[in-house]
Amino acid sequence: MIKQNISKTLKKVGLEGFVSLKEIEKEISKTETPFQSRLLLGILSRIMHTKDDEAARLFIPAVTEWKNYLPHKDLDGLSPAEYLEKYPPGPYERRFISELVNEYHRRLEINPQTGRAEVGSPDEFFDVEADFDRFREEYLNRIPLEQPFVKAGGGLMTIKEIIIEERRRNGCPERALNKISIKIFAENTAEGLGMKMAAIEDAYYEAMQELVRMQNEPSRRSRKRVRAIRKQFERDEPYHRCSIAPHQFYLNYAMVLFLDDVEIEKVISLLDRALSYKPDYKQALEMKRRLLEW
């Protein structure tokens, strides 16, 4: 069902044949959270530009859930779903983690009376990941009123100690007893995703403005800056090839390689990529014709 929903999404937004399920699986497997991947972020950007609500409903849960069914080295080759089936969390762990997440979400909610959340400031950058890490440690070190287990040596147990003891009694592997790795990732929030996409697109726009200036005024051309832009395009290519105008990106990428005196064959290969998205793209056709005649 996960793969079917992603396939439907790619077809709906015109990326079928340009992005494969194998590529998406590879991206998911190498990141902690899907939208750390520029490829998946680019697909989401295209969905947002097409304003296809159904595609968003299909895509976001599917790529998020897929990670749970891929093998993890730190879980002895098991997927998270298989690991949880083999070592299910006990009732105390489930309750405490649920309360942790709910309490933190309440801290992020906007108070209608003040127009502000409990945490963060509208005038300063707010690092939600670092803030959650601090909150998680504070929460896990609380001492709850209910003490289901007797602590060795006496005294009261913290929430973390209760979870560890419950895991031990349920046969959880010794090396995993202390691993309470619940996290919040900034890119999993709407604001975080928007900021990440905006940063990539702003950098692209600024690079294009600089390239235009170099073309109009050859004396301002800088090999160092051309190389820097080339590296930027290489890094962000997975995002741009899923964007609303990938043909324009590949034409611009080809121009950067040309300015960097790269082999003509590589420049033409990027022009062919542009034409694969838009076969009648006049600028790419004209540049390719001139290069072949050169």
Give descriptors for this structure.
2 strands; 3 domains; 294 residues
In short:
With 294 residues, the protein is an all-alpha fold. The chain has 13 helices and two strands.
Describe this structure in words.
- This protein is mostly helical and 294 residues long.
- The protein has three domains: 69 residues, no CATH class; 102 residues, no CATH class; 99 residues, no CATH class.
- Helices cover 62% and strands 1% of the residues.
- It has 13 helices and two strands; from the N terminus they run ααααααββααααααα.
- Strands 1-2 form a two-stranded antiparallel sheet.
- It starts with a helix and ends with a helix.
- The model has no long low-confidence stretch (mean pLDDT 89).
